[in-house]
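Bench notes, afternoon.
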Amino acid sequence: MTKTITPSRAGGRFEIGRLLLEGRAFFALIVIIAVFSLLSPYYFSVNNFLTMASHVAIFGILAVGMLLVILNGGIDLSVGSTLGLCGVIAGFLMQGVTITQFGVTLYPPVWVVVILTCVLGGLVGLINGVLVARFKVPAFVATLGVMYVARGAALLITNGLTYNNLGGRPELGNTGFNWLGFNHLFGIPIGVVVLVVVALAGNLALSRTAYGRWLYGSGGNERAAELSGVPVRTVKVSVYVLSGICAAVAGLILSSQLTSAGPTAGTSYELTAIAAVVIGGAALTGGRGNVRGTLLGAFVIGFLSDGLVIIGISSYWQTVFTGAVIVLAVLLNAIQYGGRAKRPAAAQPS
């Protein structure tokens, strides 16, 4: 006897499949937590989750900035090098700036260091944005070139060395840099608090403002958005600036956690940020994606990497597993978005 599948049953299976596909990052995170909790008695604990979350915070902040760029249909390969350069500049300022003409050394307070570092990150992003939006340089090429320039600048400034002991001294008025990396607010690491603030700001911008509608619209169909009055070029420049600022914030947190700033910090972090966005369900062609999914993608990568470390897996295998997850995420994205017409997605939730 041939079994007939009724339309309602087929529709139900389709809905279940769609739910699993769209919620893949969440389900993957649940599976990772469950598996590693069984493999290690140390994994499932509040302290360990907070420690892992503080590691994820750096990738998460980078990923939120990367999401904005990808929503616009671009890519930013320079965020890892920007992170390293901004960390080096922060370390340089914390060590004191000597003005040889007057024979004095200035020790700027931490809040000045933070502001100057974020401005630098924004300037690097501005260069990317102008190259892409104004001079029509392909985003891949423009940000690849800026990646090398930023990394080279960091190496030149430090001569390949690392700035250590960034805690400052009370008599100089420049203490407090380690606050970002080691302090807690209501038991939550400051880095995680910063990630939450960045994520909430990104979520509100994408879902509750005209800027968010412009971004989804220009990423979904740039020509149609331009004809609708969207300032496409301004939006394109702004996403790179915001990505650079996010990289600067991540660089400050990483340098604070390490209590040092080295020119090679953030190497390959741009790939991790892109992976988090892709795992979170964003389309690399632009116009589709949200902050919630991106954060889940960052936690999937972070919790997987830390779990492999806890159970003693070789670092080489960690790279293999992480790469496999990224390939699987891209494959699922192709399945999810394959065959759909590219269209504006201004109404997408974030």
